[in-house]
Amino acid sequence: MDVDVSDGQRADLLDNLERIGDRLREERTNAGISQRELARRLGLSASMISQVESGLSKPSVGTLYAIVTELNVSLDRVIRGDDYDDSDRPVASADEESPLVRPEDRQWIDLESGVRWEELTATSEDGVDFLHATYEVGGSSTPDESLMRHHGREYGYVMSGTLGIQIGFHEYELTPGHSIAFDSTRPHRLFNKGDVPVHAIWFVVGRESGNAAPV
Q1: Which residues of the chain have pLDDT under 50?
Q2: How many Å apart are CA 89 and CA 39, to the nearest integer?
Q3: Is 171 helix (H, G, I), strand (E, B) or coil?
Q4: What is the number of alpha carbons within 13 Å of residue 2 lying toward its C-beta?
Q5: How many distinct structural domains can be found in the chain?
């Protein structure tokens, strides 16, 4: 899907993809796994892993979850990085960082097929992904006819738009005010079913307890 962006937005996106690719490459190298071996484990091509690590390609939701889980690294680490600087955040006291996250302070990642994740926590949360998810028109978590699965449990609440969710052989339609919870080990796919962007609040709990893979 083509989305019009300014030169500044395009530069920020490329820089963000390169940083994320660098972090994934660093974690893979630290784990002592080659690109070819990681690709084999995940059922992907080595060229896909190379393109993601070099910032030339955006991973899908399923691919990113598969990579970070196989490498046993948190999604938060990939998005924020070790050099994440939160010194400009307001502090509650001299000794305590503020738990507040302003919209302009959110860490984000743009994924393949028109999906954006924005972190809603001020600091890293072990075992929990707390996200503002945006699915642009035509956006989806995985390509058509493919599903993903991973350890954990998901909780979602739709604020705007129409979100389709396929879980196994069943399909559900969520409109504003609808919520859902399901076991992430069940093959699933999320996609925008309407003609306006979908905005949703999403929790994934316990994802790091095992491997993930597109199916």
Answers
A1: 1-6, 8-11, 13, 83-94, 211-215
A2: 39
A3: strand
A4: 1
A5: 1
